[in-house]
Amino acid sequence: MFVCSGMGMDKDEVAAVLSEIGTLLELKGENPFKTRAYHNGARILEGLTEPLEKLVAKNRLGELKGFGEALQDKVTRLVTTGTLPYFDELKASLPPGLPALLEIQGLGPKKVKRLYDELGIDSMEKLEAACHAQTIAGLEGFGEKSQAKILEAIAFKRQFASRHRLIDALVCADPILESLRGHPDVTRCSTAGSLRRWKEVIGDIDFLVSSKNPASVIAFFVEQPGVKSVLAQGETKASVILEGGIQADLRVVADVEFPFALAYFTGSKEHNIVMRQRAIARGLRLNEYGLFRGSEETRDPALRVTCQEEREIFEQLGMAYVPPELREDHGEFAAAESNALPRLIEWTDLRGSLHNHSNWSDGRDSLEAIAAEAHELGLDYWAITDHSRASFQANGLDVRRLEDQLQAVAAVNQSYAAEGSEFRLLTGSEVDILKDGLDFDDSILARLDVVVASLHVPSSDALENTRRLIQAAENRYVHMLGHLTGRLLLERNAYKLDVPAVLKACAATGTWIELNASPYRFDLDWRLWRQAKELGVKCVINCDAHRLDHFNFLRLGAGIARKGWLTQADVINTKNLKDLQQALRQKRA
Ligand code: DGT
Ligand code: CA
Ligand code: CA
Ligand code: ZN
Please, what sign has the CA dihedral across residues 366, 371, 372, 373? Predict the structure, then answer.
């Protein structure tokens, strides 16, 4: 994730700089102690529970583990001024294309340094050329196979060069939208485009504003913090590039045009085409400026059909209001015409998450901190499903540690019960699906409140993956399958499997399927949920949280569930604790 910068930096921004310094030093081949000091420093800041500004102001950075004078000085500068000449010089001392090579899967600092030292490779283009010339295969420690892998990774990167994850777009768009909303010349404003439709990946951000004074709004927009450069600036529209590389477009219209422009620029293009056809079929013309009587393309105010809100446009075209998430021409017209659109789930319907990690495996926070956060957010329950032992790289739990964890969870729950609170942590495991079954015996799984089964090391064979997943679903102790297809958005495709066959097995066995709400996954994809629902499979929207700020993934995941046409009744974790516990018992009965 990247950073929209202000004056001084907050702790996550400072942590990002420290970790980048560590990486740059590794690229320079600096000694490992020094580079590790920066990476460790970054990790410690990320986990800080006190405000970093306070530590700096009170001159207490030295209390942090491994924070010598050099590190203290750098952090202080970043917090107070937001800049660090050392960092700028360090960046300038390396070829600018070098850090980008680290984003290629499989290339770490050591390998990138060798590619640079031995072959002078300092850009993606040179690396690609060297692969094609078979030079990489000849380099010691690389070989044919890794050369092919590098080429594949470059192609993948390029394909997604100008695509961004929803969360990265939201992080930039939200403050700008807030800021526009507060401007005195702004009458109405909204995001539009794929962001408003809650697409999992976004090309560019679109803003729409209505105003009597477009010039002042445009001038204000291009001056927003976070704007890196201005691509185009006209009388009623502007395009900018934000820090982190996302493009944002703004259009300013008259307020009478606002609902029409909002519908048009929200799209999708496919949805818009059908809308326009429906207008024509009713002797009307629909465009970005309005809905007009007659068969000619026009902007004539005398012919305008007045609509105050988007909703009225849909009414004029003989349909119920279609929420933006459904505007993909995926059946919304037939449903809206017959008033058969589902009442979509709201994120506030969710009562907790059933797949999450703690510092017992690869999560950052303690059980106590997790419980406190979930309780504070007004949730009813939160399951702790740390990794099982096969995920050793994620510090997976063996049976003994799992048993210790059950006691620790019980202790946390006791403290809530003692206060008269009904909030509960649930025990659980994200148990690995291995070649020949699950990583824990049934007798262990039977003792857990929640069991999520996940395939972390898939086979290259679709049949084999499908077989393993179906076998997991058939286990009566497995409540749900986690991140079913294993995709990582903009990084890695889904592994091969027969999704419909797994859905059918889940329907037959009463196994739920997770909608993994991590913005890196959104797995199962929204396009597949209607099929899942028709087969009778229930959804669980899970944060797969590894730290407290992942709790807000609930909102992201609910948006994706909306895109998948899901209602409150389709989603298990909208149930209250009692009903959930009953549902959890059902498969085992
Ligand atoms: P993106 O940015 O690639 O993630 O996707 P969108 O949907 O945000 O597309 P964008 O930013 O190019 O345009 C925003 C909306 O404007 C789009 O969803 C529909 C509307 N629009 C843009 N160009 C056209 C067009 O040529 N025909 C129609 N019917 N609508 C268009
Ligand atoms: Ca867009
Ligand atoms: Ca756009
Ligand atoms: Zn997992």
Answer: positive
Backbone angles phi, psi at 421, to 5 degrees: -85, 145
Give the Cα separation of 193 and 170 in Å (integer): 12
Ligand 3 centre and the CA of 249: distance in Å?
A: 5
Nearest of 558, 502, 565 to residue 533 by alpha carbon: 565
pLDDT tens digits along 43-97: 899 888 888 999 999 999 999 999 999 999 999 999 999 999 999 999 999 998 8
Residues 6+ apart with CB under 8 A from 153: 104, 105, 106, 107
- What are the pLDDT digits (tens) for 255-272? 999 999 999 999 999 999
Distance in Å, CA 187 to ligand 3 centroid: 21
Q: What residue ranges line ligand 1, CB within 6 angstroms?
A: 193-194, 199, 202-204, 206, 264-265, 267-269, 272-273
Report which protein residue has its CA nearest ligand 1's atom 15.
265
Q: Give the number of residues written for the chain.
A: 589
pLDDT tens digit sequence for 109-164: 889 999 999 999 999 889 999 999 999 999 988 999 999 999 988 887 776 668 99
Q: Where are the beta strands (DSSP E) in 98-171?
A: 164-165
Q: Peptide bond preceding 139: is omega within 30 degrees of 0, i.e. cis?
A: no
151 Cα–ligand 2 center, Å: 29
Is 74 in a helix, a strand, or coil?
helix
Q: CA 504 → CA 400, 435, 473, 497, 516, distances in Å?
A: 35, 21, 10, 13, 19
* In contact, 515 and 529? CB cutoff 8 Å: yes
Residue partners of 341: CB distance under 8 A and separation at least 6: 320, 322, 323, 326, 332, 335
- Please give the distance of CA 46 from its chain centroid, rounded to a whole number: 19
Atom of ligand 1 nearest to the CA of 202: 4
Extended beta strands in 485-588, E state: 512-516, 539-542
CA–CA dist 532, 513 (Å, integer) = 9
559 with 551: CB under 8 angstroms? no
